[in-house]
Design a protein that fits this description.
Number of strands: 5
CATH superfamily: Response regulator
Oligomer: single chain
Largest sheet: 5 strands, parallel
CATH architecture: 3-Layer(aba) Sandwich
Number of domains: 1
Strand content: 15-25%
Order of helices and strands: HEHEHEHEHE
Structural class: alpha/beta
Distance between the termini: 18 Å
Length: about 140
């Protein structure tokens, strides 16, 4: 696990090689690493996860990681899921793209908008909320 700010570009390649040897798909988590680390509990222990901030995400870094799944929040101070969707669509990404929606009143609006703008993306919303148990389980597959 790492982030661009913690690890150099060479570490991305090392993570990719480790993932290739294990047969597990890389999960790329885009957003503020401090807030996104809580996602680890939703993935098998052997899943390779890499955390990156949106402003650090480049086509070169993405190509080096080759993630099977991309996860982010619906909105943050720096970007929203449509910004990330445009980046992924521009790279012809075809893996899973999942966004977290905490206490969003109408998550289906986000789902419909993203799917309309980027019909080739495998996009879905994972709803989380205060009324759910302490360790919520996603309603949709992460990858």
């Amino acid at each position: 696990m790492g982030s661009i700010r913690q690890n150099g570009f060479g570490a991305i390649v090392a993570l990719r090689q480790a993932r290739d040897q294990s047969g597990e798909g890389m999960v790329l988590v885009v957003g503020e690493p401090q807030r996104m680390h809580v996602l680890r509990r939703h993935f098998p222990g052997r899943s390779g996860m890499f955390f990156i901030e949106f402003q650090d995400l480049t086509p070169e870094a993405f190509a080096a990681l080759q993630p099977a799944c991309v996860v982010s929040q619906v909105m943050s101070a720096e970007f929203d899921c449509l910004d990330l969707g445009a980046f992924l669509d521009g790279l012809s990404y075809r893996g899973a793209f999942r966004v977290l929606a905490q206490d969003l009143p109408r998550p289906e609006i986000v789902r419909q908008e993203a799917r309309a703008r980027f019909p080739r993306l495998n996009f879905d919303v994972i709803e989380t909320g205060a009324e759910r148990p302490a360790s919520p389980r996603p309603r949709v597959p992460l990858h």
